[in-house]
Amino acid sequence: MNADVAAEDTSALALWNDPTAAVAARVDALIAAMTLEEKTAQLFGVWVGASADGGEVAPHQHEMEDPVDLDALLPTGLGQLTRPFGTVPVDPALGALSLARTQARIAASNRFRIPALAHDECLAGFAAWGATAYPVPLSWGAAFDPDLVRRMAAAIGRDMRSVGVHQGLAPVLDVVRDARWGRVEETIGEDPYLVGTIGTAYVQGLESAGVVATLKHFAGYSASRAGRNLAPASMGPRERADVVLPPFEMAIREGGARSVMNAYTDTDGVPSAADESLLTGLLRDTWGFDGTVVADYFAVAFLTLLHGVAADWADAAGTALRAGIDVELPNVKTYGAPLTEAVADGRVPEELVDRALRRILTQKIALGLLDPDWDPVPAALDGTDPDDPESLRGRVDLDSAENRALARTLAEEAVVLLSNDGILPLDRPRRIALIGPNADEPTAVLGCYSFPQHIGVRHPGTPLGIGLPTLRETLTAEFPDADITYVRGTGVDDGDLSGLDEAVWAAREADVTLVALGDRAGLFGRGTSGEGCDAETLTLPGAQQQLLDALLDTGTPVVTVLLAGRPYALGRAVTESAAIVQSFFPGEEGTHAIAGVLSGRFNPSGRLPIGVPRAPGSQPSTYLGARLAQASEVSNVDPTPAFPFGHGLSYTRFDWTDLTVDADEAPTDGEFTLTFTVRNTGDRSGTEVVQLYLHDPVASVVQPVQRLVGYTRVTLEPGEARRLTVTVPADLASFTGRDGRRVVEPGALELRLAASSANPRLTSRVALTGAERHVDHTRRLHATFVQKPAAA
């Protein structure tokens, strides 16, 4: 296929098409040559769906938007194509052909031959039909393994780039502040350091494949009141600075993210989409971010429709542009004719358009879209015949064996063993009662941004596109000699207990009961977890708790298995279940991982990225709470979790010993070095997750009782020991002081080496000395761990 977009006479190249020229010069020349209409055309996207037969994409008809006339738009150009693969089910090869043909048309239609930048969702894998469904981000957090997440993201990026997609709308760097929020499954956890390190690894992986990573949601979306989606955020500047912002700061500085998406929320009356101090002052002027800021879908229009800070579409466009939003997504609403007219009549300075345009064109040049040899045909279609679309069907594999192996490894590392009275691993049980709404449901492993749950549900009868073995199927394979009796018992949220008696009977006849509970992912109330699926309390949805309690009453040992998007209060099961296994939507290989934990085929190493509540009504709460946030005699509400952040059990035992500290004092610009030994004293190999917490007993402003400042995974054979050295810079003790600046204060500290936030193993009491010291975004962000074999 030849898009016929390259200039034939390279000696007559326009400056903006000359790859040997400086990028800034290319951008300047192009902006100078463009009309106002051509400029604004680069500032918006059009929501499309790829054609199932390989023809050009079709505009997506959305209830919030008027139909788009591509023929009318394209002569002046087009900035972005919104979700060509993530809108309708389409064979990946035919989708790639559809996108290529559309890109050729876009380039040929405008006088500068500029193609669009295509973006898609990739929260837990490329959100395209037939693409690998990886574990959701909450499982990434549970794995505590940035290297593995980096590899997964690189694989996602390679798949996206191979079919012509340039930008991915991930990762979500929101820190959980209230587990009732429906989008908890999309987050990495409740700790900013964990979110930052895992999210940065994801960015590094995606960007390594040439795909623009998009950080979202900037900033404070997860701090919404009562855990409601798209609600005002209740937080002060210190919470924003010390909890919400650090993951974004890290992902920009260390990850090299090239795009940021605004949050829907308003904070203290200022919507993020209109917050110039956030999107320009902090993000660009302070942190030095030079990429693009894209609007969360409809966020510019929401300045008028929901926030009431803009009078009309032109006012909304000017407000967002001034704040720092460069690209309106998903469709053109305000950045088209309303913006053009407002610039023409002087209401919006053209300099704001040029500022945004400069960033957009710089990114398109970096992606090679303005080079003379640009070809719309992506790598996946090399050597194919575009004139025979049917010959392409099935030619592109977005769910390779390598992808599935990564998905399984991550799912395995993310399974958290919460409790175990010794029943696990199961020792060849003869009779298993398998009960619960998620025991025989293929999609129980998927989050709301997986293609089957996000898009596929709107196309009944369309095959899932990927294999999703149920827990019932994988357990049958895992325990081939067992007699497994399956009873649904109840639905996820239907409240139907008509199957309760049958479930109780099956449990009484069994040697062990496995009960699979949790969530169904969906959108805007169609599920119990996901965007717009917020929870009033953290009671298990529907009648699941009644089912669980009835099974506990049978006297048969009950192993509770959770496939969920958030943690739930489990009532009596916390103390009465023989074991509890927690999995956060573990993806297409997830049931293999759960079965492997139950059988002991592998040793669990997952740790909680968010605490499991003891009571359903104790939200919002977080382990990062200050002293007043802890249990006390003056309140009858106890926020202490049943299982704390960082908790997770193993089938082996680890001893931590022989802590030494190089010095118990260091200056406020210095560091501490701690050395200690971790030994596997059990009879099988396993992985310990060493966590480092900082406790600051006296500070000028209230501090969390403790916060995570480092972690590492330590894998040991039986009897093996490692000597670990961790270097802790004083910068990790910094926080936002009373004057709004980040400060390192002299004084006493505790460095807690711990197996969880509630299980310190070794503690070092140290002190910072000297003058108070101010630091900024260039401060040291990490403790460094070095592992060496321990002396025999």
Which stretches are poorly predicted, pLDDT < 50 over at least 5 residues? Answer: 1-10
List how many beta strands DSSP finds: 28
Q: What does the overall shape look like?
A: globular
- Lateral arrangement of strands in the main beta sheet: 2-1-3-4-5-6-7-10
Percentage of residues in strands: 15-25%
Structural class: alpha/beta
Domain Fibronectin type III-like: 688-757
Protein name: Glycoside hydrolase family 3 N-terminal domain-containing protein
Organism: Streptomyces thermocarboxydus
Keywords: Hydrolase
In a nutshell, what does this entry contain?
The protein has 792 residues and is of the alpha/beta class. It is built from 21 helices and 28 strands. The strands form six sheets. Strands 2-1-3-4-5-6-7-10 form an eight-stranded mixed beta sheet. A six-stranded mixed beta sheet has the order 11-16-15-14-12-13, sandwiched between helices.
Molecular structure report:
The chain is 26% helix and 19% strand. By secondary structure, it is α/β, with parallel strands linked by helices. An eight-stranded mixed sheet has the order 2-1-3-4-5-6-7-10. α4 (92-109) links the parallel β3 and β4. α6 packs parallel to α7. The model is unreliable at 1-10 (pLDDT under 50).
